Amino acid sequence: MSDRNTMAQRGRDLEDAFFHDVDLKLIEELRAASKNKASRLALAKEAGISDERLAEELVELDVTPESLVAIRLVPLVMVAWADREVSDEERDTVIAEARRLGIHPGTVADKMLDSWLRKRPSQVLCDAWARYTRSLLLDIRRPSIGRHDGFW
Fold first, then answer.
1. Among 21, 78, 84, 151, whose Cα sits 20 to 30 Å from the Cα of 133?
2. 41: phi then psi, degrees, rounded to nearest 5
3. What would the DSSP string read from start to end of 25-46?
């Protein structure tokens, strides 16, 4: 085989390897998008969210149907962070309220809440909470057909 043929074959091999990597990346992106869509649909159904953008934002914040109840505590968590740190007393108060809401130790919601008490949640979470609450309040004003009852 001549050097020219060897070089051409090497070029094709490199091209094949490149496009194989591109294909793998695209497949992974499609899987992630599909998983994200399934997560959004499950969360939207559980939470009664009709705003797809809001459901997507909550999924990006790692909110799942299992951790959704923790969203109810975002205002209390933010009050605990008001002085830039969470005291033991404030933490105990938030945890007591979580237990009252049925958030059991070791659950996904409990772990999410724990992470919020260790590291101040972003403003994005607070904004998502506000939009979610607003959507629930608007839903209450609408006729009850198709309304998700029982979350709050």
1. 84
2. -65, -45
3. HHHHHHHHHHHHHHHHHHHHHH
- On whether residue 122 sits in a domain, the answer given is yes
Asked if the model's pLDDT at residue 33 lies above 50, the reply is: no
Burial 67-105 (b: 16+ CB within 10 A, else e): bbbbbbbbebbbebbeeeebeeebbeebbeebeeeebee
Tell me, yes or no, whether 148 lies in a domain.
no
Give domain status of residue 151, yes or no.
no
> pLDDT tens digits, residue range 34-56?
455 666 667 677 767 777 788 78
* 49 located within any domain: yes
Tokens found for residue 8 = 């051409």
The helix/strand/coil state of 149 is coil
- The count of domains in the chain is 1
3-class secondary structure, 105: coil
pLDDT digits (tens, 9 = 90+) for 71-117: 889 999 999 999 999 999 999 999 999 999 999 999 989 999 999 99
Range of the domain at 23: 3-141
Tell me the average pLDDT across 2-25: 69
